[in-house]
What does this fold into?
Amino acid sequence: MATNRKRPLVLVVEDDPALGDVIMTALKDEGLDAKLAHDGDEAMRDVDDLSPSCMVLDLMMPKRDGFSVLRELRADGRISRIPVVVVTAIFGLSERLYATELGAADYVTKPFDLDDLVSRVRALLSPTAA
It folds into this structure.
């Protein structure tokens, strides 16, 4: 078992299985690996087990919501290694600012354009000029 992946892994955290599958399929079609977590608790286990390269995170979920996931990632420094695209039906400016304050790299409101979401994920995965 190789520990180095050939393709970046995107962890999709979405409690709507149909939407999660659509996002994962779009990412895989772009040559990325993707794994679906259905809630924040599962997401945090996957972060520890899989060390994803990027996360697409729904804010409104059962058990542990997206804000809680962002807070935990920020608290232990993992937010700096895992760029997070927040995907949510919450349109409020205060929620957007709070997610950004917690370290979210990007914010997309539902309904969204799938190609736009994939482009945003790709942009976060692109190596910066060294």
About this structure: The first helix runs from residue 17 to 29.
